[in-house]
Amino acid sequence: MSGYDVVVIGGGVAGTSCAYHLRRLGVGGVLVLERSSLAAGSSSRSTGFVETAYRERRRVEATLRSRRIVEELASERGVPFVRCGKLLLGPDRAALEAALVLRRELGAPDGAVLSADEVGAVVPELRTGAPALWCEGDGHTDGPLLCSALARDVEVRQGAEVVGITIASGRIAGVTTREGGLSCGAVVNAAGAWARQIGALAGVEVPVDGYRRQVAVLEAERTTLPIVAEELGGGEVLYLRGEGERRILAGLHSETTAEQPADPDDFAEALDPAFEARIAELVSKRLVRGASLRLRGGWAGLYPIAADGEPIVAATEVGGFFVLAGLGGNGIQLASALGEELARLVLERA
């Protein structure tokens, strides 16, 4: 059997980011095993937000680090990064001001709280009477191209489904794919919506499941829309962003786990009529010409959400078995930072 220092299971943005940082930290034998192709899961169905306009300290700190890494990858490896800015709409100006103070405390180079009139001046096609936190350095990238760039200097085996994990004396000894066995000193479970199944192979409970979410594609005569996020209540957020000059992506972000998890190997990938109708109603209210937008399809993907709603970046009770999973609907904007955290943890523990 060939041997590796670390085997990363999952070729999405979480797995490729961890592998990228392991190599940067000097680990020589790193292998990524992907059951399908790079970014074939949630990373290819993302809207690619690289955004930092949040109010929670941990989230702001992590997304600022991720944005810096994506900017470096854009410069060094040609990863596309469209810096369009983000507006976080909110009726509570005091909360937005507190978020701005937090950003400055964490060293963010951008950020301002805009009045409703100023929001209208920045984005004339937006209809709102609320203030907003404006982060002009935010933007979006391409999930598959980001994964490819992160994996450039790493050995990757695509079409390699992991069917077994070998443990000896309480520690990881190897993994088995349908093609055969591999010895290794550590395993990183970065399998997204499949993280629970991979954990079971090692006898470790990984409380992460996939929850179906949808994205609509709308056609406009012309748009320069940045990322726009508006809290609707109940943990639900309406988000919009321009895609080129004539298209707008729209969705409803929610990381609740009240509904039944989806089967990651068998879920509906087309839009639901009820979702289409709700998006049409919300967009017609939020955009000046929203009622004239034409639906041009869309898609559904899975948010890999942990039971407590927080990303898992952790060692486990099995020596050498680590988990980077449960990034929810924020994988692109969190993975670069959390992948580095997990890589450092692997070096400390393994």
What is shown here, in short?
The protein is an alpha+beta fold and 350 residues long.
Please give a structural write-up.
Strand 14 (about 225-235) and strand 15 (about 235-245) form a beta hairpin. The protein has eight helices and 19 strands. The mean pLDDT is about 95. It has two domains: about 5-45 and about 145-205 and about 310-350, FAD/NAD(P)-binding domain (3-Layer(bba) Sandwich), CATH 3.50.50.60; about 85-135 and about 210-305, D-Amino Acid Oxidase, subunit A, domain 2 (D-Amino Acid Oxidase, Chain A, domain 2). The two termini are about 20 Å apart. The chain has helices spanning about 15-25, 55-75, 95-105, 115-120, 145-150, 195-200, 275-285, 330-350, and strands at about 5-10, 30-35, 50, 80, 85-90, 110-115, 130-135, 140, 155-160, 160-170, 170-175, 180-190, 210-220, 225-235, 235-245, 245-255, 295-305, 310-315, 320-325. The strands form three sheets. Strands 1, 2, 9, 10, 11, 12, 18 and 19 form an eight-stranded mixed sheet that branches. Helix 1 (about 15-25) runs parallel beside helix 5 (about 145-150), helix 1 (about 15-25) packs across helix 8 and helix 2 (about 55-75) packs across helix 8 (about 330-350). The protein is of the alpha+beta class and about 350 residues long.
Name given to the CATH homologous superfamily of the largest domain: D-Amino Acid Oxidase, subunit A, domain 2
Q: Estimate the global geometry from the Cα principal axes.
A: globular
Order of helices and strands: EHEEHEEHEHEEHEEEEHEEEEHEEEH
Q: Fill in the CATH topology of the largest domain.
A: D-Amino Acid Oxidase, Chain A, domain 2
Give unreliable regions as ranges: none
- Tally of helical segments: 8
CATH hierarchy, class of the largest domain: Alpha Beta
Round the Cα radius of gyration to an integer and report it.
Answer: 20 Å
Ends apart, CA distance between termini: 20 Å
The CATH architecture of the largest domain is 2-Layer Sandwich
Helix content: 25-40%
> Overall mean pLDDT score?
97
What does the largest sheet look like? 8 strands, mixed
Number of domains: 2
Number of beta strands: 19
Query: Which secondary-structure class do the elements indicate?
Result: alpha+beta
Strand content bin: 25-35%
